[in-house]
Amino acid sequence: MNAKSLGIFGLLVILFVFMVLMTSDPWTDIFSSTFLQSNNIENLLRRVSMYGLLGIGVAFVIITGGIDLSVGSIVCLAGCLLGIFLQVDYRPAALFDVHLATQENNSLVVHENAVGRFDVGDKLRMYRGRQPALLTVKDIEAVQLKDREGKSLGIGTVMTVEGLLRDEDSGQVAKAFDVLDFGQVVGDQPAWVELAGVSFRLAVRDRVSFFHPTLGQKDLVVHSASQSGDITRVDLSQPLGDRFSKEWMAMPTERRQRMAIPLAIISVLGIAGFLGLLHGLLVTRVHLQPFVVTLCGLLIYRGISRWLVNDNPVGFGIEYKETLSPLGSGKLSLFEWSTADGSQSFGIPYPLFVFLTASGVAVIFLNLTIWGRYMLALGSNEEAARYSGIRTERITILAYVICTVAAATGGILFALDSGSISPSSFGNFYELYAIAAAVLGGCSLRGGEGSIFGVIAGTAVMMLLNNLILLLKIPDRLEFTIIGLVILMGVTLDETVRRIAARRRAMKSAQT
User: Fold this and answer.
1) How much of the chain, in percent, has pLDDT values that exceed 70?
2) What is the C-alpha radius of gyration for the chain, rounded to an integer number of angstroms?
3) What would the pLDDT profile of 356-411 be if each residue is shown by its tens digit?
4) Running DSSP on this structure, what letter comes out for residue 270?
5) Which of 37-46, 220-229, 500-509 has the lowest mean pLDDT?
6) 365: part of which helix (H) or strand (E)?
7) Is residue 262's pLDDT more than 70?
8) At what angle do helices 430-440 and 479-511 cross, to 10 degrees?
9) Dist CA 509 CA 486 (whole Å)
């Protein structure tokens, strides 16, 4: 550990003590400190973990003499991609796209052949459409559909229906089922319903949409389901409600997850690695400045994120509440205690385990492998490193790949922690936190210097400063002012140390 790293660790200790004293009332009673409350410490550890991943990634690029300004946009893109890859849809058993519905002659035309899927007397409901009433099938016939120019659109179905209240030229229509019998929650027994004619086997986490002509609609999650002949019994995870009766209709929907969780995470990290490869190639082969390449990346990836989700927030809802979401927002509880305000607990946030694993790998890579030494040599003197036989282009590319993969990992954790990603603001200015943490941790912007331990301490200092602003009620408008001053202080200190070291080397040379 070099002198810079020791200095930042000393600053971290001083800042920690200052925070404890300033948030104690009276200041001599440290046990009353707001800073030391379990939820604040947990939140601080979580934030240090997620921002620390970004700082470690940027540190590798800075060590090689480069810079990456696209970190925040990579975080946003990773979060949006994860939300897209893990999107969950619920589709009814028999669902057909509406081609045309005409109220005047009670005609409903759908794409594909629905004969055999719908029968005379079936109840239909517009799914994600504007039709408020149930439709009853009176007649059904398969036909050849054509557009206005007479071009064939394939096989379709024309149905004569009762209950059509308006014309339609879009939407979807699905079959609704009568509730044969039902039961409310009794003790440990869940609420249940019996339906007839469901064409697919319901599974755990599927849903049943219940609707009533006047009482509205509710979507309930399937706890378990069993089938006996044509009758399907569905146990539900939520109660039916006191106003539920056999007048309600049911529409079972099947849960369809776009990707498996491991495949989605690997895909996000793979795309991030490809972007890092692209950055490295533009810097080494096209000979563009890293500042320009990553600044363009900052703008491009932000724009792609907004375009992918149509500038709308994307999230996970409750779909992954017990599976993936705890990785970002959960914790490993260690102990609990009772207070006057109720029980409290303290645990280790799960992101901290990811961060410690990544930090350990980074320390080994940078200090104990030949590639880490190559990176330090490249940052110190690229030309000398090239003449010594180091494949400098490959090492530069590797640094950018590590940076984008680390940023995407952090982006996944940020997304899971927040639960919702707004592409216009998610990840904004995160690159400033990452660069500030790396510079404070002893990474020289000229390259060739840096340590992972220093970056960890630098990240902790940045998060403590952020926490100080919150707990001491300093206007949050000053947050970026403080970040700017911290970066300026770090660069000034780096320049001062460099000059002092140069003078000492010159004096030793003169003496010899």
Assistant:
1) 95
2) 30
3) 999 999 999 999 999 999 999 999 888 999 989 999 999 999 999 999 999 999 99
4) H
5) 500-509
6) helix 350-368
7) yes
8) 30
9) 35
The Cβ of residue 26 has, within 10 Å, a number of other Cβ atoms equal to: 7
Q: How far is CA 495 from CA 48, 62, 446, 488, 501, in A?
A: 27, 15, 10, 11, 10
d(CA 436, CA 441) in angstroms, rounded, equals 8
Q: In the chain, what are the domain boundaries?
A: 3-87+260-331+346-476, 90-257
Alpha helices, DSSP H only, in 419-472?
430-440, 452-471
Q: Is 476 helix (H, G, I), strand (E, B) or coil?
A: helix
Strand, coil or helix: 371: helix
Q: Give tens-digit pLDDT for 292-331.
A: 999 999 999 999 999 999 999 998 888 888 889 999 999 9
Q: What is the mean pLDDT of residues 468-479?
A: 80
Please tell me the distance from the alpha carbon of residue 332 to that of residue 320, in angstroms, as a whole number.
Answer: 18
| Paired residues of 218 in beta bridges | 210
| CB neighbourhood size of 5 (10 A) | 20
Q: Is 2 helix (H, G, I), strand (E, B) or coil?
A: coil
Calpha distance 81→73 (Å, rounded): 12
What are all long-range contacts of 390-394, with beta carbons under 8 Å and residues at least 24 apart? Answer: 392/284, 393/280, 393/284, 393/285
Report the C-alpha gap between 416 and 330 in whole angstroms: 10
Q: Are 479 and 465 in contact (CB under 8 A)?
A: no
Pull the structure tokens for residue 279: 């950055």
pLDDT of residue 339: 65
Q: Does domain 3-87+260-331+346-476 have CATH number 1.10.10?
A: no
The whole-angstrom distance between residue 133's C-alpha and the CA centroid of its chain comes to 38
DSSP string of 223-258? EEEEEETTEEEEEESS---TT--TT-EEEEEEEEES
Higher pLDDT, 34 or 52: 52
E-assigned strands of 316-445? Answer: 331-339, 342-349, 420-421
pTM of the predicted structure, to 2 decimals: 0.85
Report how far residue 111's alpha carbon sits from residue 117's, in angstroms, rounded to the nearest whole number.
13
Does the structure show a pLDDT above 70 at 342? no
**Measured between alpha carbons, how far apart are the two ends of the chain, in Å?**
29
Distance CA(222)–CA(286), nearest Å, equals 56
**67/59 Cα distance (integer angstroms):** 9
Spatial distance between the Cα atoms of 492 and 499, rounded to a whole number of angstroms: 11
Distances (CA, A) of 299 to 107, 199, 403: 50, 49, 17
Quickly tell me which residue has 């700082």 as its tokens.
55
Say how far apart CA 125 and CA 22 lie, in whole Å.
62
Average pLDDT, the chain: 88
User: What is the widest separation between alpha-carbon atoms in the chain?
Assistant: 106
**What is the pLDDT averaged over residues 57-77?**
95
Is the preceding peptide bond at 26 cis, omega within 30 degrees of 0?
Answer: yes
Model confidence pLDDT, tens digit, residues 488-497: 776 777 677 7
